[in-house]
Amino acid sequence: MSKKPKPPLIERLKPFVAPFRVDGSGEFHLRSYKTSERGGLDKGEGEKILDANRKRLSDLQERLYAQDRWSLLVIFQGMDASGKDSAIKSIFDGVNPQGCEVTSFKQPTIHELNHDFMWRSMIALPARGRIGIFNRSYYEECLVTRVHHDLLDKEKIPRKLITPGIWQERFADISAIENYLSRNGTVILKFFLNVSKKEQRERFLDRLEQPAKNWKFSMNDVTERAIWPRYMAAYQDVIRHTSTPYAPWHVVPSDHKWFARVAIGSAIVSALEELNLRFPRVDKASQEEFAKVRKALESEGRSGAGGATRAVKRPAKRG
Questions:
Q1: Burial level of 270, CB count in 10 A (0-12/13-18/19+)?
Q2: Pairing relation of β-strands 100-104 and 131-135?
Q3: Nearest Cα to 83, choosing from 258, 269, 267, 268?
Q4: How does pLDDT run across 99-150, given as a tens digit for each residue?
Q5: Residue ranges of the alpha helices (H) in 103-242?
Q6: What pLDDT, on a 0 to 100 scale, did the predictor assign at position 2?
Q7: What are the CA-CA distances from residue 223 to residues 23, 62, 67, 74, 135 (Å)?
Q8: DSSP secondary structure string, 256-301?
């Protein structure tokens, strides 16, 4: 009996992508998404998928770079210790760094605060053929700034423009810009690493117990943890209002880091597979030129490494 052909890669990865994708086509309630989901896998199975995704992503990135038409913007958002840094390191391991750039957005500088809230992200967008990774992003301006409303004063916005509707306005601005980017060839994937408060506690304790991880801990992390419900409400509002078919959110279960990486890697590989990326074809004139070069190189090989070498003239000595 002949073996059944394998389904296309996108179909094989669909169980790890579709359940977590939010594109605005239905109602969204954050509480409906479990943080401990494992997609019916055990860790060993997950590691195999993750490794296969890495290899395929490396190949797709090379094609993306060579074709030089599309770009990919990957956005990571999540509470502290949700696994953003380690996910980026693991998923993109093996991808050529020449075609991939990570930008981490920290507290805005004085220079950045002298511009609109999208400015610092816009100047970091990936060029055609490149993958841009945002570790946090312009969405912080609808999350941290919303939870800590006093931060708006530092943005130097005219007071009459700071109204109760400012967050809806920012949602509209972000969606408009993402739509513009998608129409110009930037594929946008957004990931919310959905970790439970209990798991965050365990990871904080781990950071405190291991000297090599102490640097990751800040007392501010504990302060933010105390207002967890406010952050969850802000995330829910962001995802509800900025999920679109051209810039979908993926609410990724992140209590198990290995499964979060499976889901994120599968979504990225699937999105790039849909682009049908190809290496550029060489035109006839170039092929003819290549044939001449090949003939010359083969002829050189037959003549031997020590064959007809040209003498190099030395410049005459002065004085």
A1: buried
A2: parallel
A3: 258
A4: 999 999 999 999 999 999 999 999 999 999 999 999 999 999 999 999 999 9
A5: 110-113, 119-122, 144-147, 151-154, 166-183, 197-209, 219-225, 228-242
A6: 58
A7: 32, 43, 47, 28, 21
A8: SHHHHHHHHHHHHHHHHHTTT--PPPPPHHHHHHHHHHHHHHHHHH
Q: Which two tokens stand for residue 76?
A: 């990571």
- What is the rounded (10 degree) CA torsion for 191, 194, 200, 204? 0
Instruction: Give me the residues of the chain with pLDDT under 50, please.
Output: 307-315, 317-319
Handedness of CA 260, 117, 162, 245 (dihedral sign): negative
Q: Long-range contacts of range 289-295, CB-CB < 8 Å, 24 or more positions apart? A: none
Which tokens hold the place of 205? Answer: 């304790």
pTM: 0.89
Rounded-to-integer distance, Cα 305 and Cα 307, Å: 6
Other CB atoms closer than 10 Å to residue 133's CB: what's the count?
Answer: 23
Rounded to whole angstroms, how far apart are CA atoms 145 and 122? Answer: 19
Tokens linked to 272:
């790039």
Q: Tell me the C-alpha distance between 255 and 252, whole Å.
A: 9
